[in-house]
Design goal:
Shape: rod-shaped
Structural class: mainly beta
Helix content: under 10%
Largest sheet: 7 strands, mixed
Strand order of the largest sheet: 23-25-27-32-33-29-30
Number of strands: 34
Distance between the termini: 167 Å
Strand content: 25-35%
């Protein structure tokens, strides 16, 4: 009987694969896919359902795909481990194939359970005890490596401290679907650290576009798109392009400094393609990238508001605006009140704004009158030739000579009591009759509220010299150009007082006073 039992047990052991004694701590095997369908693993496994297959694309290593056991792959065990065969079946948009450009990992994941009861077995069965001890060893290795089993993530690497973990593949936080959080601890002040390697001399990839260079403590990104505010403490160095609506030096009282580089050798800060700030020479160019002065503008410029210049301003033309009626106002400073004003120098001309009378000096910086010229000057009075009745316009016609070449023409003087824009105080008007016949002559009329005052001695004639005293009825001067000797050239010159009178300051000819 004993011999029969021994023979039966020997046949049973020789018919099955060798016992899965756990002699190596390996838990997984990674692969670079190349389109193959069969992949071999060499770590011991008790059941085909203990093999979990995941894959991910090189371009998106954070996107992990878990294949379905029995549908997308089958497992065959052997005395040295086993192999899987991919079926190519697609489940939920994920194909069971593994093409070039993808990576795959085969991992052992056993349940933390003990389902065999040795109290009911009776006879000692070595294989059952061996399998139980092997499973317990696998669970210990699994716990040590931090591999957990989840109904949502199937498998994940939760800790990278075990020397047996090959660390190839991915780092994934197990938990509920969606974004996960990693904490450095539960207490205040705990830190979460990421290190490239034990020497700290490698890179840490941030997604697929950014890399953190641990030795130089710099982050470089191919393309970065940020929605919202980004705060940077320290220096931001950019190689390439950056797009932003606004850059601030802080959230309250900070300052924003733009530098061409941090090497200590200042160069240029380009503002678009045609403007630049020359940091080395402290020059700003608008319309030019090579400014030759502190502010170098190539092209037309428009200033809305006040323009304050400390130093020299070089320009061909300066306009007060682009519209009709726009004014150009030049002032020594922005302070109100004549007592706060200074001096405006326009080449050889100086204007003293500090004086309430506003004095202008040409070739002198200390004018003592409203206009003072240090040197000679010349000028011609404007001549207006009229053949019909004409009304003098103040102040435009002031200091003009009006030639009248037709008899019976009236010249009306402007109102002395005008506004600042039409003031006549000091306004000199000279009327000359250049007609060749005596006829009815030329009449000079003051405004309704004005009078003509003065004396005029005419040419020798039978007409008595007339004296104007400014009677209650405004007077008119009537000139006859050819009253004596039929000679043209009779004239009268008058100056307004800006109140109510026109004073005769010169005259020649035969003329008389008539009531208006």
């Amino acid at each position: 009987m004993r011999q029969t039992i021994a023979v039966a047990l020997l046949c049973l052991l020789t018919a099955s694969p060798a016992l899965a004694t756990v002699t190596v701590p390996d838990l997984s095997t990674p692969f670079d896919c190349a389109g193959a369908t069969e992949y071999t693993f060499t770590f011991p496994v008790l059941k085909t359902t203990d093999i979990v297959v995941t894959k991910w694309e090189d371009a998106t290593p954070t996107t992990i795909k878990t294949l379905v056991n029995g549908t997308q792959y089958t497992v065959t065990l052997s005395s040295t481990g086993g192999h899987i065969d991919l079926t190519g079946v697609t489940v939920a948009g994920v194909t069971g194939a593994c093409a070039t450009g993808w990576n795959m990992k085969l991992a052992r994941s056993v349940a933390y359970t003990q389902t065999t009861s040795f109290r009911t077995q009776g006879t000692f069965v070595p294989k059952l005890h061996e399998d139980a001890l092997d499973k317990l060893t696998m669970e210990v290795l699994q716990l040590q490596a931090g591999i957990t089993q989840s109904t949502e993530t199937a498998t994940a690497i939760a800790d990278h401290i075990a020397s047996s973990d090959d660390h190839t593949g991915y780092f994934k936080i197990a938990g509920r679907a969606g974004g996960q959080l990693a904490y450095g601890g539960t207490a205040s002040g705990n830190n979460l650290g990421f290190v490239s390697n034990t020497s700290g001399d490698g890179y840490i990839s941030l997604g697929s576009v950014c890399v953190f260079d641990e030795p130089t403590l710099t982050v470089s990104c191919n393309t970065v798109s940020v929605t919202g505010n980004t705060a940077i403490g320290g220096t931001l160095s950019i190689t390439g392009h950056t797009y932003a609506h606004a850059l601030y030096g802080g959230t309250s009282t900070g300052s924003l400094t733009l530098g061409s580089n941090e090497s200590g050798t200042a160069t240029k800060i380009y503002l678009g393609a045609s403007s630049a700030f020359d940091e080395l020479n402290t020059r700003l160019g608008i319309g030019t990238t090579s400014p030759s002065v502190a502010l170098d503008i190539v092209g037309a410029g428009a200033v809305s508001g006040d323009l304050t210049v400390a130093g020299h301003l070089y320009e061909h033309q300066i306009y007060g605006g682009t519209g009709v009626g726009d004014d150009l106002d030049i002032s020594s400073n922005s302070q109100a009140g004549a007592g706060n004003k200074g001096t405006i120098t326009l080449g050889i001309m100086t204007m003293l704004e500090a004086s309430s009378a506003y004095r202008v000096g040409i070739r002198t910086t200390t004018p003592h009158t409203t206009l003072q010229v240090a040197g000679t000057f010349s000028g011609l009075r404007e001549v207006l030739t009229k053949s019909a009745d004409y009304t003098v316009v103040a102040p435009e016609d002031c200091n003009s000579v009006i030639f009248v070449d037709t008899n019976a023409v009236s010249v009306t003087l402007p109102n002395n009591n005008g506004t600042q824009a039409t003031r006549t105080d000091g306004c000199l008007i000279t009327v000359v009759d250049i007609g060749t016949t005596e006829a009815t002559g030329v009449t000079i009329k003051p405004a309704v509220d004005d009078t003509i005052v003065g004396t005029c001695i005419g040419k020798p004639s039978s007409v008595t010299d007339v004296v104007f005293f400014g009677a209650s009825v405004p007077s008119n001067i009537h000139i006859h150009a050819a009253a004596y000797g039929n000679v043209a050239g009779d004239y009268v010159a008058l100056v307004g007082d800006g109140v109510s009178k026109w004073f005769i300051v010169g005259c020649m000819g035969t003329w008389h006073e008539v009531a208006k």
